[in-house]
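We were asked to recover a plausible sequence for a given structure. The inputs and outputs are reproduced exactly as logged, with field labels preserved.

PROBLEM: sequence recovery
POSITIONS: 350
GIVEN STRUCTURE:
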């Protein structure tokens, strides 16, 4: 049996408050424990949006009541995630893991510059969903064009800029070059961008997410970026929706797939067992790097135990998440999470 420091997912959607038919703090954190995670950071596309101490306290109350793993929420960058008026970074710092308008890109360069200045002043992280709404999301430039803009702003302001779910080869190269110049940038990608591409897409909501699955060349560039350290973190972008919302075919379904209960086995099987990356690199990207980069609590008594040798079939009907939509359903994989320990206490065991 293999064991290591438990995983930390810096990009999840737990949907509470506001969208509890999709997921709740309870079901989402149970899914985390089943996936080997003991720390998760939920994004702020909620109702109310956590953009003030008052609205954040609604989410925090649900966390305090129901969470079975450590939950460190994001606050939004702009009020209501509308991209116009900045939140009060000084007031919210210390109560959230970072700031993000995830779900939308910050369209205005001026707003992003002011956000980065405030973040630099307060020593907090801007985590950006990069998407230029003037281009189709299927155009890779929609992502990398905004990353290119933001890397300039990051160099100018000196803030810590973290790029969410990168999916294109140009994004990898831009971030690689910026890091070489000393820009204060980190980034994540998600398991699906490392293991699938547009050729795998079926007419099924299970393949619908934003950013979309790109080309095989993009997938290969992401693996190279993970190998050489350009990509720091693997985060799932666990984005549950109801069966109805995901049941309208590829074009008609809501964007987002669940991820926490499949991340390690899928990545271990496709990247480690195939010899593309080492097990140590995978554990670093899922456990130690997210803690270090986001300054998450040091939790040496959080462990995950994993069976690396017995194949099993992914069965979404067994998930703790309310979400069921995953492109990995039915895959035969290795790396089953057997036990998750938080603070020395077993929180999941098969
Ligand atoms: O696929 C996605 N789902 N991308 C996003 O940016 C948002 C997320 C969600 O909240 O469902
Ligand atoms: Zn996003
Ligand atoms: Zn997201």
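RECOVERED SEQUENCE:
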């Amino acid at each position: 049996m293999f064991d290591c420091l438990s995983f930390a997912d810096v990009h999840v959607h737990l949907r509470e408050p506001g969208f509890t038919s999709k997921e709740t703090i309870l079901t989402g954190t149970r899914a985390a424990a089943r996936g080997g995670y003991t720390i998760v950071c939920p994004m702020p596309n909620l109702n109310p949006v956590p953009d003030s101490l008052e609205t954040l306290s609604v989410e925090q109350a649900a966390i305090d009541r129901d969470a079975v793993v450590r939950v460190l929420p994001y606050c939004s960058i702009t009020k209501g995630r509308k991209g116009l008026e900045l939140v009060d970074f000084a007031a919210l710092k210390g109560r959230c893991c970072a700031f993000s308008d995830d779900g939308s890109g910050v369209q205005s360069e001026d707003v992003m510059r002011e956000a980065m200045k405030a973040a630099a002043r307060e020593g907090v992280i801007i985590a950006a969903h990069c998407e230029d709404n003037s281009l189709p999301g299927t155009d890779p430039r929609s992502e990398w064009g905004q990353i290119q803009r933001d890397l300039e702003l990051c160099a100018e302001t000196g803030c810590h800029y973290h790029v969410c779910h990168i999916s294109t080869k140009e994004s990898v190269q831009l971030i690689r070059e910026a890091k070489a110049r000393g820009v204060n940038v980190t980034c994540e990608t998600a398991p699906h961008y490392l293991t699938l591409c547009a050729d795998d897409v079926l007419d099924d909501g299970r393949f619908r997410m934003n950013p979309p699955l790109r080309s095989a060349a993009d997938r290969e560039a992401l693996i190279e970026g993970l190998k050489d350290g350009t990509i720091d973190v693997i985060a799932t972008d666990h984005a549950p929706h109801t069966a109805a919302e995901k049941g309208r075919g590829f074009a008609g379904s809501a964007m987002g797939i669940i991820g926490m209960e499949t991340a390690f086995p899928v990545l271990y099987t496709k990247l480690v067992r195939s010899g593309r990356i080492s097990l140590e690199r995978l554990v670093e990207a899922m456990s130690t790097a997210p803690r270090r980069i986001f300054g998450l609590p040091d939790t040496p008594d959080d462990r995950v135990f994993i069976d690396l040798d017995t194949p099993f079939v992914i069965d979404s009907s067994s998930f703790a998440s309310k979400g069921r939509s995953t492109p990995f359903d039915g895959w035969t994989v290795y790396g089953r999470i057997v036990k998750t320990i938080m603070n020395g206490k077993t929180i999941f065991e098969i």
